[in-house]
Design goal:
Number of domains: 2
Shape: elongated
Distance between the termini: 30 Å
Structural class: mainly alpha
Number of helices: 5
Radius of gyration: 22 Å
Largest sheet: none
InterPro entries: RNA_pol_sigma_r3/r4-like
Strand content: under 5%
Number of strands: 0
Order of helices and strands: HHHHH
Length: 127
């Protein structure tokens, strides 16, 4: 799933940025005298804040997606879970569930429209 790939990448970026920040604060780069809001350590702290916020958002999105999928029943739930959690193609889903590819595509499109409608309805209510 793309969100989980993004989470892995963000975790790696946070590790890398934290390691560089540690080098500036107490490592070999700590001997360099730089200061102010535009210094590399200050930039790294801002970057870490941004990456951490993005990581938290992505993790919430995965949790929300899994909760949403659980609200669907039967074949619909299986299609959503296999597509968006397990990352299967619609063709693979059709094979797994013993349905035609056209039926799975049709069901997926219908689910997509329903989810888009919910997004639009909730978004309009928030304004």
């Amino acid at each position: 799933m793309q969100l989980e790939n993004d989470i892995s990448y963000l975790e790696w970026e946070i590790q890398k940025t934290t390691a560089e920040s540690d080098r500036w604060l107490s490592g070999d780069l700590g001997q360099m005298h730089v200061g102010g809001d535009h210094s590399r350590p200050a930039q790294l702290n801002k970057e870490l804040d941004k990456l951490t916020a993005e990581l938290q958002w992505r993790k919430r999105a995965v949790t929300d997606l899994k909760e949403l999928i659980q609200k669907f029943k039967g074949t619909e739930a299986q299609i959503l879970r296999k597509k968006y959690v397990e990352g299967e193609t619609l063709e693979d889903i059709a094979t797994d569930l013993n349905y035609s590819v056209s039926y799975i595509r049709q069901k997926h499109a219908e689910l997509h429209r329903r989810l888009d409608f919910i997004d639009n309805y909730i978004g309009a209510g928030a304004e």
